[in-house]
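Class prep. Protein, please:
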Amino acid sequence: MPAFIPITIHLNDKSMVVSSIADAAKVLEQLWPKMNKPGRLKAIRMIEECIAGHCSQQAAFDAFKSAAREQRLLRNRSSGGRTLGQLFETTRPLRT
């Protein structure tokens, strides 16, 4: 299975890099803060469909990223774990 641009997930007090469907499947097996959130359940279903050949790898990986984002597990290495929106919220307006 091809690798994707790596994403960092912070789960159970540790950071994990996820760059493939196999990585995503392993992370989904772990204890998440909210195990029955719709996004996580959809990601599990999409990963299973992908492995069975009924869903694209990109769609399954996107579902995984969405589930991680929904539970605030997704980390952006270049911004210290903050999203672009959070970075812009803390930016002061330019003076003219």
